[in-house]
Specification:
The complex is a heterodimer of chains A (111) and B (248). With 111 residues, chain A is mainly alpha-helical. Chain A has one domain. Chain A contains five helices and two strands, in the order αααββαα. A two-stranded antiparallel ribbon of chain A has the order 1-2. In chain A, strand 1 and strand 2 form a beta hairpin. The model of chain A has no long low-confidence stretch (mean pLDDT 91). By secondary structure, chain B is an all-alpha fold. Chain B is 72% helix and 0% strand. In chain B, helix 2 packs parallel to helix 4, helix 2 crosses helix 9 and helix 2 packs antiparallel against helix 10. The longest helix of chain B is centred in the middle third of the chain and has 31 residues. The C terminus of chain B is likely disordered. Classes of the chains: A mainly alpha (111), B mainly alpha (248). At the A-B interface, helix 1, helix 2, helix 3, helix 4 and helix 5 of A face helix 2, helix 3, helix 4, helix 5 and helix 6 of B.
Chain lengths: 111, 248
């Protein structure tokens, strides 16, 4: 289906609108609203929790199932990346070191 | 008032995003490749790439669109994958509420996961004065401008070179490593590290939930666990507290 379909275009525009609505949801309205103190405190944990929730399944599952082998390039890349981060505190380095472990194992050995 | 891109915080915001740029570029590249290989038309792919600006919901929507799923299913999926942004918007409210409506919409739209995380790390508490608010705005603008340019350039490159880049190489994993870097930098207290452990485990255990709802469940549970464990510590400092804290 390489012809442009009007319905698909409408769906894509709808997705873009949803991106705006969800990212702005609680500041769309300017009505005053005091955030409860517990929520304010809880939000300090939201960024790190969101990151972990997004990435951990991508590291240890394949097609929805927990991996059952240690021969998975992702595990070694994550270990190398974490080691680099705690040693050098560099995010750039974490990505580069992680990928230099990942690519040979994944493309070369098929892990 | 001078232009926002001349503010020193604009440069700092851009520099912070620069450290993560290679990972996000690889991810953006592979998102472009995936969109073309899904079989959507080039017009549809360009439209999605340029407008939607949310990698994970794009990838979640592709198989549904190609399979001819009803529009509401695609949109419901987008909504659920984006639920975490609603949590972010609660947090960002105090930082953007002084802006006008359309300016707030732009601030929200351009604030991706990475920009949100870096922004709240740089400014843990919203400023009360005009100078502080200006600095926040400049950082947010610089950070998201670089993020947008990087993501779009990589995505367009992926669209153009789709047939030359094999998906099997798994270059997109660099994006996960970028998010892992930012996650590690956030683990500054024991409770925060615990939040990551809880959220990561819950997201894996509840992975079978439809519409990527596992992400939302994981965030809510991790925050709840940390709030509960925080209580004993707070009690110890209760004398100092000005206001009695309301618990859920």
């Amino acid at each position: 289906m390489n012809k442009t379909d009007l319905w698909t275009v409408v769906t894509i525009v709808g997705m873009a609108i949803l991106t705006v609505i969800t990212r702005c949801f609680f500041f769309l309205s300017s009505n005053p609203w005091a955030m409860p103190a517990w929520l304010q405190r809880g939000l300090h944990y939201a960024p790190i929790a969101a990151m972990a929730a997004v990435i951990v399944p991508e590291m240890v599952t394949t097609q929805g199932h927990l991996i059952s082998t240690w021969q998975d390039a992702r595990l070694f890349a994550v270990a190398a990346g974490l080691a680099c981060f705690y040693w050098k505190r560099s995010m750039f380095g974490t990505i580069i070191v992680g990928m230099s472990v990942y690519l040979p194992l994944h493309v070369g050995l098929g892990w | 008032m001078t232009a926002i891109y001349k503010h020193p915080e604009f440069r700092i915001g851009a520099r912070d995003m620069m450290a993560l740029a290679p990972g996000m570029a690889a991810w953006g590249l592979m998102t472009g490749v995936a969109m073309i290989k899904s079989g959507m038309s080039v017009v549809e792919v360009l439209l999605m790439g340029l407008l939607v600006f949310a990698g994970s919901s794009q990838l979640a929507a592709l198989p549904l669109i190609v399979a001819g799923a009803p529009m509401w299913v695609v949109l419901a999926t987008t909504l659920c994958v984006n639920l975490r942004f609603m949590v972010f918007s609660v947090h960002l409210r105090a930082y953007v509420m002084h802006q006008g409506f359309w300016r707030r919409l732009a601030s929200g739209y351009f604030t991706t996961d990475l920009t949100y995380v870096q922004f709240t790390k740089r400014f843990p508490h919203p400023a009360n004065d005009a100078i502080g608010k200006r600095a926040e705005e400049a950082y947010l603008a610089g950070n998201s401008a670089l993020g947008w340019l990087n993501w779009m350039t990589a995505g367009l490159l992926g669209i153009a070179l789709a047939n030359a880049i094999p998906v099997s190489w798994g270059l997109g994993f660099a994006g996960i490593l970028a998010l892992m870097g930012i996650m590690s930098s956030l683990a500054t207290t024991r409770l925060r590290a615990l939040a990551a452990v809880v959220a990561g485990s819950v997201a894996v255990v509840t992975y079978a939930l439809p519409l990527k709802l596992n992400i939302m469940v994981a965030i809510v549970l991790a925050v709840a666990v940390c709030l509960l464990l925080e209580k004993p510590m707070l009690a110890a400092h209760a004398v100092k507290a000005k206001n009695p804290t309301q618990e859920p």
